[in-house]
Amino acid sequence: MHEYPITEQIIKICTDHCHKAGGSRVSKVNLVIGDYSGYVGESVQMYFDIISEGTVCEKAEVHIEHIEPKLKCSSCGALFKKRPMTFDCPECGGEGGPTDIGKEFYIDSIEIE
Questions:
Q1: What's the rounded Cα separation, in Å, for the pair 42 and 90?
Q2: Which of 32, 69, 78, 106 is the most exposed place for a label (fewest CB within 10 A)?
Q3: 89 burial via Cβ count (<10 Å: 0-12, 13-18, 19+)
Q4: At a CB cut-off of 8 Å and minimum separation 6, what does 111 contact?
Q5: Ordered alpha helix ranges (H), 1-113
Q6: What are the tens digits of pLDDT across the range 8-62?
Q7: Is the pLDDT of residue 83 over 80?
Q8: Is 111 exposed, middle or buried (0-12, 13-18, 19+ CB in 10 A)?
Q9: Residue 96: is it exposed, middle or buried by C-beta count within 10 angstroms (0-12/13-18/19+)?
Q10: Under a CB-based contact definition with an 8 Å cutoff, are residues 56 and 35 in contact?
Q11: Alpha helices for 21-95 (secondary structure H)
Q12: What is the mean pLDDT of the chain?
């Protein structure tokens, strides 16, 4: 349910961008959503379809790029996806630690007509 207010803001940003650029409608919104961002892409899509009705964003395509979380090796610096039951780096065997990769949430681009 917390996707509702963030989706309202996405539509507001897209609407403002469309008006400032002199467009008639938003045709596509490209979002980047990390798997650890706390937001579910399918819920954002659902709310976008509902909230955008009657706006310049109505029927706009929403493309979501999902970002998988990565660990960073404290020994060699390699970034890697965590494997079940281990934090070991697949490159050198060092210990992986958390990063901000996978926590992203932003509008990458807005396409207007």
A1: 32
A2: 106
A3: buried
A4: 26, 27, 28, 29, 30
A5: 3-20, 41-51
A6: 999 999 999 999 999 999 999 999 999 999 999 999 999 999 999 999 999 999 9
A7: yes
A8: middle
A9: buried
A10: no
A11: 41-51
A12: 97
